[in-house]
Amino acid sequence: MSFIVQAPLHVRSGTFELGPVQIGAVESGVTLVAGGNGCGKSTLFRELDRTARAEGRRIAFLPQTFTFPPFARVRDVCRFVAERRIDEREQRGAAIEEALARTGLTEQAQLSTRRLSGGMHRRLGICLTVIGDPEVVVLDEPSTGLDVSQRRGLREVIRAVARTTPVLMSTHIVDDIDVLADRVLLLRDGKAVFDGSSGEFLGHADGDAERPWESAYERLLASSVEEVS
User: Where is the ABC transporter domain positioned along the sequence (predicted)?
Assistant: First the structure.
């Protein structure tokens, strides 16, 4: 399964310009958009969400910051989303249970959202994205603010989702690239300085680097677009 972005994405906002950035085919697995703060990751995702919806595509976009009604139960929030995405009523229950299972929230389904930990809060956000069988799941910095244990659990959820649904995810955490990425798109100042497989990305590291992923990340960000093959 793949999600094709036909046209390059290009946005001008004040003095900042994004792109044109060609995403092309987002395949099953995790396409990871990386780069430092202010490089254009969130702008890229907002523009992708806008254009995809205008075309009638089934895209599920989870922004970096989101909230839930504090006294609603997890299952009720899922039901609210299912009612708006799935026309056939008899299909909604199964879709909710599948989404809860895929994101490891079955045991938390009766909890109110205010009782969820930070990691479980993010899991519920991802759970909602997979309801209704989207063509692609887009996650904007889902690991931000989580501790090591929560981040590890969230990565397992993202990998599980990506086995059947293409995932496009942004991050500034180099370890996410190491653990999750099948493809890496690296941005600097609104421009793509690298787009390739995780193996190709790692090939840009110093040969004797103790942390090759960090080495590749730093070397690519320091290079010019013309220097990157």
Answer: 3-214
